């Protein structure tokens, strides 16, 4: 019944798109207006929406003219919603869902396509994340947060041609503010709030002669934990913050044809870790977790980038070179409980990951104004990653749980060591690409693109300090897009497209003892078909964008459980189908005093074919029951067979991370206070319906409930003076919405929730000079 309702809604959305476009095309063009008088020319249309320029597909273009689904979230919107990192973008972008996973990773999906491989450091995200067009190649790095952001661009659907690393779900590109020539200035911001929230930020732009400038930014953020671990003596705060983020950028423009930008960013984070509350926690308070092993999370990261732009007579040459380093260390209570409640302990004493990466992207793009717009280039990346995991499990209250040396002898292992993995993987990726847009007429354009992806993996993995097992894999894939768009009027356009994205296969480093899971896994691809319409109405006072999509997932990567415990890895589900519709709108009226906005996404999907997958929770339960009944004993052949027999057919199941409905609505009011200045008030409602957390759709485990969140924002700006003050309230009703659900695939198997932050009240003062 619900699916039928959704289908009718999608059909209605498509019909509305077609009717909107048709009616716009059917309108009789107005007669040329007479030349305005001087008085009329001086009267600006205060309600007209300003054009938003995005760099989608490596070209600067008006968002309303871009023939693809892209959303730009401005720095002003980020501030009003207290969005300090990727996790805060939920509700602002159609089809986007970002959830915490396992405490340290940030999992991103767009239109249900993302990553189903938590706690696997060597897989690539389905949604690629970039900072100033530099690809960030792992999910842990998304803890970096936002710093000195101009706007955030989110491209929806596969990006398999020109956008950095090919991706199956889409791309997020954080565009930072850049140094400015000839300008001396900056700003200072101080923010305070409940939970001892304190944030200080300072930015300074300094010109160096006529051809150079430097921009420096530093930001320090801290607050107490939003949750408390009650099983630790004296209580232990979780979901706290303690980080510093700073960036130094230099711009050199010796001629009009050459621009050189060098940027270095450093981030440090050291806090108690995230609160993952077991669904079996005896304490009903969502902000209190009954756990007794203190969690720790520490992250250090550097991103250094050199960008060169050189204008040739016939084209523009651009080079982006980057070096990245990441060092993450964490420990946590894997059983999400206390010794007394769990009947023992399951503790991850160390989950340490390191990564170094160098990247180069070179592009040559045509100058505007010709019948054929084209861009050609090549992307290269080399990365070296390592991982060290130590986990203990037992029933002795005083058992030691040390972080052992990586050179520990297999003959000297503690009896309570349940899992250890040491691994290293090198990846080399090369991808040449070409895309062109041909203007058939002034209104009709055709676009085609192609990309050849080559990924090579080599490395080794070792479990329980045994001799390392060498692993390698080579992956090749052809991706691209085809698209046609047509301007019905100067303000209304329609488009239709096909695009293919790709996520490389790779190696499983912990499967040396596995019975079923392979040492390598296959690439995944997504073919997406989309139709859409972008429209300006009422003299550009109202913008409405509508799109619908159908995506075919091939070889979706997911966590595959093995009958042998701790030997799981990444597997592939052959086929997954997804479909949906999206709408975005913004309306400005009453001389720019009132602005209304909103977005809505409707989605659904299914796994169409028979596929047997092993849910480790069912396998654990069946094996434990057989042991208790005296049928078998642990680690016997019969015990393994009992576990393997718990595989279930996931045909017809709903894919993970696909809420049936999600979006947000907002309203802003600008009030002039006479000679005292201006007050801006904004209210917004963000919402997300329920969804399935895993492919198993297991009742009571995978069904994640819906939630909504109300935010308020007020900004006072005096009529004169270089300062302003804001008051922000997020999660006004103090709802404990479930931001994400995590089922531990390797350790305890415990199901836990991570909640959105509680009500936050923040006062901020900004001084510009």
UniProtKB/TrEMBL annotation:
Biological processes per GO annotation: iron ion transport
Keywords: Cell outer membrane, Ion transport, Iron, Iron transport, Membrane, Receptor, Signal, TonB box, Transmembrane, Transmembrane beta strand, Transport
InterPro entries (alphabetical): Beta-barrel_TonB, Beta-barrel_TonB_sf, Plug_dom, TonB-dep_rcpt-like
Chief localization: membrane
Signal peptide segment: 1-26
Membrane topology per record: Multi-pass membrane protein
Residues in TonB-dependent receptor plug domain copies: 63-171
Lineage: superkingdom: Bacteria
Locations listed in the record: Cell outer membrane
SUPFAM superfamilies reported for this sequence: Porins
Domain TonB-dependent receptor-like beta-barrel: 296-732
GO cellular component: cell outer membrane
Protein family (similarity comment): Belongs to the TonB-dependent receptor family.
Protein name: Iron complex outermembrane receptor protein
Native species: Nitrospirillum iridis
């Amino acid at each position: 019944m619900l699916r039928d309702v959704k289908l009718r809604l999608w059909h209605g959305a498509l019909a509305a798109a077609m009717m909107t476009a048709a009616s716009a095309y059917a309108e009789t063009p107005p007669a040329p207006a007479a030349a305005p008088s001087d008085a009329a020319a001086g009267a600006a249309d205060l309600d007209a929406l300003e054009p938003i320029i995005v760099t989608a597909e490596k070209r600067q273009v008006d968002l309303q003219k871009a023939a693809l689904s892209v959303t730009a979230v401005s720095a002003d919107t980020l501030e009003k919603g207290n969005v300090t990192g990727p996790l805060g973008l939920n509700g602002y972008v159609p089809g986007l869902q970002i959830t915490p996973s396992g405490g340290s990773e940030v999992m991103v999906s767009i239109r249900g396509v993302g990553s189903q491989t938590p706690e696997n450091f060597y897989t690539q995200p389905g949604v690629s994340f970039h900072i100033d067009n530099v690809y960030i190649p792992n999910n842990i790095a998304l803890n970096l947060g936002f710093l000195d952001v101009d706007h955030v661009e989110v491209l929806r659907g596969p990006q398999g041609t020109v956008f950095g690393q090919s991706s199956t779900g889409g791309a997020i590109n954080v565009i930072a503010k850049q140094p400015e020539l000839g300008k001396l200035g900056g700003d200072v911001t101080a923010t305070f709030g409940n939970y001892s929230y304190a944030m200080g930020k300072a930015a300074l732009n300094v010109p160096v002669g006529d051809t150079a400038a430097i921009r420096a930014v530093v930001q320090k953020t801290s607050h107490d934990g939003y949750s408390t671990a009650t099983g630790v003596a004296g209580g232990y705060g979780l979901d706290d913050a303690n980080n510093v983020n700073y960036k130094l950028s230099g711009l050199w423009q010796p001629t009009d044809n050459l621009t050189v930008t060098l940027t270095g960013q450093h981030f440090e984070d050291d806090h108690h870790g995230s609160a993952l509350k077991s669904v079996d926690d005896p304490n009903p308070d969502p902000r209190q977790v009954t756990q007794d092993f203190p969690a720790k999370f520490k992250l250090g990261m550097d991103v250094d980038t050199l960008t060169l732009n050189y204008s040739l007579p016939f084209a523009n040459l651009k080079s982006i070179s980057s070096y990245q380093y990441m060092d993450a260390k964490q420990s946590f209570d894997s059983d999400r409980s206390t010794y007394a409640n769990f009947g023992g302990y399951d503790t991850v004493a160390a989950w340490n990951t390191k990564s170094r990466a160098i990247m180069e992207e070179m592009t040559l793009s045509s100058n505007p104004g010709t019948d054929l717009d084209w861009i050609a280039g090549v992307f290269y990346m080399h990365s070296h990653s390592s991982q060290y995991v130590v986990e203990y499990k037992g029933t002795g209250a005083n058992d030691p749980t040390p972080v052992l040396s990586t050179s520990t002898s297999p003959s000297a292992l503690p009896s309570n060591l349940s899992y250890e993995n040491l691994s290293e993987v090198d990846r080399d990726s090369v991808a040449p690409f070409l895309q062109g847009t041909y203007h058939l007429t002034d209104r009709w354009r055709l676009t085609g693109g192609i990309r050849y992806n080559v990924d090579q993996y080599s490395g080794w993995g070792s479990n329980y300090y045994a001799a390392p097992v060498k692993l390698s894999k080579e992956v090749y894939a052809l991706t691209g897009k085809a698209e046609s768009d047509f301007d019905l009027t100067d303000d209304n356009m329609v488009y239709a497209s096909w695009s293919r994205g790709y996520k490389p296969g790779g190696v499983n480093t912990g499967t040396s003892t596995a019975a079923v899971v392979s040492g390598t896994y296959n690439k995944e691809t997504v073919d997406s078909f989309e139709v859409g319409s972008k429209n300006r109405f009422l003299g550009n006072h109202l913008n409405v964008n509508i799109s619908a999509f159908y995506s075919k997932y091939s070889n979706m990567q997911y966590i595959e459980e093995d009958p042998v415990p701790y030997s799981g890895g990444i597997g592939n589900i052959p086929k997954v189908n997804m479909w949906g519709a999206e709408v975005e709108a913004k309306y400005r009226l009453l001389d720019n005093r009132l602005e209304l906005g909103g977005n809505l996404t409707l989605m659904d999907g299914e796994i169409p074919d028979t596929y047997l997958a092993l849910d480790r929770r069912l396998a654990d339960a069946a094996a434990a029951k057989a042991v208790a009944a005296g049928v078998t004993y642990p680690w016997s052949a019969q015990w393994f067979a009992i576990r393997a027999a718990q595989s279930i057919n996931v045909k017809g199941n709903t894919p993970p991370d696909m809420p049936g409905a999600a979006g947000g609505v907002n309203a802003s009011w600008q009030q002039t206070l006479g000679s005292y200045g201006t007050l801006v008030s904004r209210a917004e409602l963000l919402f997300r319906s329920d969804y399935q957390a895993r492919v198993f759709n297991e009742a009571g485990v995978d069904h994640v409930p819906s939630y909504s969140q109300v935010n308020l924002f007020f900004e006072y700006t005096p009529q004169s003076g270089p300062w302003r003050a804001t008051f922000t309230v997020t999660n006004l009703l103090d709802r404990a919405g479930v931001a994400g659900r995590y089922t531990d695939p390797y350790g305890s198997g415990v199901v836990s929730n991570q909640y959105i932050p509680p009500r936050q009240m923040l006062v901020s003062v900004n001084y510009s000079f």
